[in-house]
């Protein structure tokens, strides 16, 4: 049995789907009770529980855990190691943590939290049979899907990261397939693996791809995000877009290519599959 947390979100659901495509038995952990037709249709066992509570029922019989922590949640730094430790003590021997590309950017609160979780991994598994692996995705191409739909009507692509710096957008399906590899294949213990898309794209580059895809002119428009320091999530977003505007968010696709056994999907391929 492989346990996937935050399974009701886009990443968790995609990982469940990729694992089920491999024939793996999956327990999908969600935050709240209620019908989960997408997960149920995949054949996953669905368990509702708080990640900061008693996870014993969710971890019974688990041989592996894929830990996705909810986005922009201030409890990750302490909560994620606790979940990983509980899984190791329950007998899971393979722990895979969903981190982020360049977690060492500690000026970004959500990156800093993930960096500290990675730092704790050796202590988490100490005295158990568990081994750890880490996946570090770049920004998702899927994060732009709502803007793609709006651009079809408006002809505009607002860019909170400006018009000059690039990002290496990765398709969530490729992230999920890489996660499935880390959860099910041998020879990858104590490894940290980047999941990065194959192209470095500025907002005007994305707009040009949208123009070709939609058959209408789309123009990238600089749209700075309004600063929000009032909440943890607001601080995360404010610092994130400031970082992307100043430096972009790019990396190499070679590690993901090796994990997948093929090149990652391009942004144009992502658009065609929407």
Automatic annotation (TrEMBL):
Q: Which residues form the NmrA-like domain?
A: 2-225
Q: What InterPro entries does the record point to?
A: Ergot_Alk_Oxidoreductase, NAD(P)-bd_dom_sf, NmrA-like
Gene3D superfamilies in the record? NAD(P)-binding Rossmann-like Domain, UDP-galactose 4-epimerase, domain 1
TM region(s), chain numbering: none
Q: What SUPFAM superfamilies does this protein map onto?
A: NAD(P)-binding Rossmann-fold domains
Report the protein name in the record: NAD(P)H-binding protein
What organism is the protein native to?
Answer: Geodermatophilus normandii
